[in-house]
Write a structure and sequence with these properties.
Layout: H1 9-16, H2 24-37, E1 40-43, E2 54-57, H3 60-68, E3 73-74, H4 85-95, H5 111-120, H6 125-128, H7 132-148, E4 153-155, H8 156-161, H9 163-172, H10 180-191, H11 196-199, H12 208-235, H13 241-246, E5 249-250, E6 253-254, H14 257-270, H15 273-287, H16 290-298, H17 303-314, E7 319-324, E8 328-330, E9 333-335, E10 340-344, H18 345-348, H19 383-400, E11 401-406, E12 411-412, E13 421-423, E14 425-430
Parallel strand pairs: 2-10
Antiparallel strand pairs: 1-2, 3-7, 4-14, 5-6, 7-10, 8-9, 11-14, 12-13
The structure holds protoporphyrin IX containing FE.
Protoporphyrin IX containing FE binds at residues 67, 104-105, 116, 169, 266-267, 270-271, 274-275, 278, 311, 316-317, 320, 345, 372-376, 378-382, 385-386.
Length: 431
């Protein structure tokens, strides 16, 4: 008897089943149940070899500890997102690496801090302030377009929370509007393949190998596309982040082509479905609570609290994986060097020990030290941009929309990695 806390098969299956993530309350029930009994618990496959066993970490304190201890818990060499063995083998055959893309999230020290430093300043509030006017104009256009639709019934995801963050990220990467749709399709092939509505290519019915083939194709297309942008920004640098990446030097050398492509891809993909999911969640919370809508309409100082709580409440990045660099005791379990761990942000951000009444959307929650952006060396590079974008969009909504209410069933994506609402039907009345 090893003494290890091993999750029973039926519960373990839910942790890795994309469809379980489409049903939010059920998912939170599962994590509550697991956390209460075994905050650090082993998930093993029913069929040997399907995937490598991993430790599921569901308590806030343990997720925080792992996130901050970047020497003991590495992002490399195992995949940084949960993957089946077949998919990992294909990735190795296709690229020679466990990961199809080499980017900030898969690097550890000493490379990671050098790469991170390249764009860190660009993503700080002082620099982002330059974007505010542009964001305000974009937010106003997006909301006006939604209101022009006439009937008053809108799918908020399709019309607002999807397109707005996509345009922001594409703009900072120098992608013109006409190429946006293609970029979105590619991102959804990378992240949304588990959901039949999001991948747009029947990927949910494919074998892991077929899925990885599509994903590898998407990566290649991204790489070729951004090579063109980088070349342009080397000749004609501007103030955008695309120019910073194109002209960056590490140890006196330009980034190797694969790393440069990886940098563009991580910014392109990390920045929109995530912000979209939190934006849709905030709007859902306000639509469900007319009093809160009225309160924030009258007092805009409540907006930052709403934005922050929406990010916790939705936790769009649902997990990342880490690999133990040493033997360590965690939550009463003996984690061995080389073990794989899933730090689950949804579970951590709904830990009642840290967040009283965690399923409640509480705009006045204080403190609200959530982990939706992670923590430690890899903490979200775009967190200030995400907050700024959301605040500016909600200012435009509060200016232009008199009232908002649910107009049908909101549906979540089936995805274990980046998740959130894929439709949010609302009835809106212009101010
Ligand atoms: C990393 C969440 C928006 C770019 C991360 C991580 C999380 C996260 C959980 C990993 C943190 C860790 O390992 O400790 C989110 C959420 C967002 C959001 C919830 C929106 C609500 C953005 C935006 C951008 C962005 C707008 C850029 C345009 C990145 C990058 C990384 C990252 C580049 C990798 C950082 C590194 O490994 O050093 N994000 N993100 N994210 N995010 Fe975000």
């Amino acid at each position: 008897m090893s003494g290890e806390a091993i999750l029973p098969g039926d519960i373990a299956r839910k942790v890795i089943d994309p469809h379980a993530y489409a049903e939010w309350d059920g998912l939170l029930d599962t994590f509550d149940h697991i956390r209460a009994a075994t905050p650090v618990a082993k998930v093993q496959p029913d069929t040997p070899g399907l995937f490598d066993p991993f430790w599921l970490v569901t308590s806030y304190d343990d997720v925080m500890r792992i996130s901050k201890d970047n020497a003991a818990f590495l992002n490399n060499p195992r995949p940084v997102v949960f993957s089946f063995n077949q998919a990992i083998e294909f990735s190795r055959a296709a690229t020679g690496s466990n990961m199809l893309v080499d980017s900030l999230v898969v690097f550890d020290a000493p490379i990671h801090p050098k790469y991170r430093k390249l764009t860190q300043e660009w993503f700080m509030p002082r620099n982002l302030a330059r974007l505010e006017d542009e964001l305000r104009a974009l937010a106003a256009r997006t909301v006006d377009r939604m209101l022009e639709n006439g009937s008053g019934e809108v799918d908020f995801v399709k019309e607002v929370s999807g397109p707005y963050p996509l345009r922001v990220v594409m703009q900072i990467l120098g992608v013109p509007p006409e190429d946006e749709f293609r970029m979105q399709m590619l991102t959804q092939q990378l992240f949304g393949g588990q959901d039949k509505d999001l991948s747009g290519s029947g990927m949910d019915k494919m074998t892991p190998e077929q899925v990885v083939q599509i994903v590898a194709g998407a990566v290649k297309t991204f790489e070729d596309y951004f090579a063109g942008i980088a070349e342009d920004r080397r000749k004609h640098p501007t103030e955008d982040v695309a120019s910073v990446i194109a002209n960056a030097l590490v140890d006196g050398q330009p980034l190797p082509p694969r790393d440069m492509a990886g940098y563009y891809i991580i910014v392109a993909t990390a920045g929109h479905d995530t912000t979209s999911a939190s934006t849709a969640g905030a709007m859902q919370a306000l639509a469900n609570d007319p009093e809160q809508w009225a309160r924030v309409k009258a007092d805009r100082s409540l907006l930052p609290g709403i934005v922050e709580e929406a990010i916790r409440w939705t936790s769009p990045v649902q997990h990342f994986m880490r690999t133990a660099a040493e033997d360590v005791e965690l939550g009463g379990q003996q984690v061995k060097q080389g073990d794989w761990l899933m730090i689950n942000y949804v579970a951590a951000n709904h830990d009642p020990a840290q967040f009283p009444d965690p399923r409640r959307f509480d705009a006045a929650r204080s403190p609200n030290r959530h982990l939706a952006f992670g923590a430690g060396a890899h903490q979200c590079l775009g967190l200030h941009l995400a907050r700024l974008e959301m605040r500016i969009l909600f200012e435009a909504l509060l200016d232009r929309v008199a009232s908002v209410e649910p107009a049908g069933e909101a549906k979540r994506a089936s995805s274990t990695f980046v998740g959130g609402l894929k439709t949010l039907p609302l009835r809106v009345t212009a101010a």
